[in-house]
Amino acid sequence: MDQRQGDFIDSKHDLDALNRFTSGRWLWNERQQLAARYVKFNITKLLKLAAASIGSESCAEVVKLSEGQYNKVFQLTMHDGREVIAKLPNPNAGRLHFTTASEVATMDFLRNTLHLPVPKVHAWSSRASDNAVGAEYIIMEKQAGTMLSDMWETMRGKQKAQIVKQIVDIEKTIASTKFTKLGALYYKRDLPSSDHDTVLYVDRAGNEGPQLRRT
């Protein structure tokens, strides 16, 4: 699939395969299972938006990555060679709006407050009715690297220990972060205004924040 955005809609491509679950079958309630994982969206609008989010002219290639149970994930390659990841939640992913809004705010917090290696979000929308794509989406950077499963068997013991330590350090950073309330993270404007004044996070120096604001 190496065509410009306007050429994606033709009879040569099974565009509906982008919308539906294609990674397996069910022996029970298959119709309901597939419906829970079907996302109708405008692929042309998604590609234009993704390209614009990183300042590219257009998208050259779309690859549907292995599906989980709750999201559609696409690797988008631009004509200048840059790559981004587009993620669209299935209907069974969780509450409309709130699941995507919390995921983006949480990624922001982990990346910019806790300084963990989390992909940068280039563009997103948690309200399908308010965007041209017609679905909730997150456009994020593709992080360079190699799958650990591809390298593990060839690594030496010391190298494996270093990897495990890095993972433990990340978990320690997250686990040691204290909040004043239980629940999910959101930007203020994505929640009702009834509880915007509560301080949710205080860092080790005693500073309140961050004041997460939707950009």
TrEMBL record:
Gene3D superfamilies: Phosphorylase Kinase, domain 1
Keyword vocabulary terms for this entry: Mitochondrion, Transit peptide
Principal place of residence: mitochondrion
Pfam assignment, any one: APH
GO cellular component terms given for this protein: mitochondrion
UniProt name for this protein: Altered inheritance of mitochondria protein 9, mitochondrial
PANTHER family found in the cross-reference section: ALTERED INHERITANCE OF MITOCHONDRIA PROTEIN 9, MITOCHONDRIAL (PTHR36091:SF1)
UniProt domain Aminoglycoside phosphotransferase: residue ranges: 62-181
Family: Belongs to the AIM9 family.
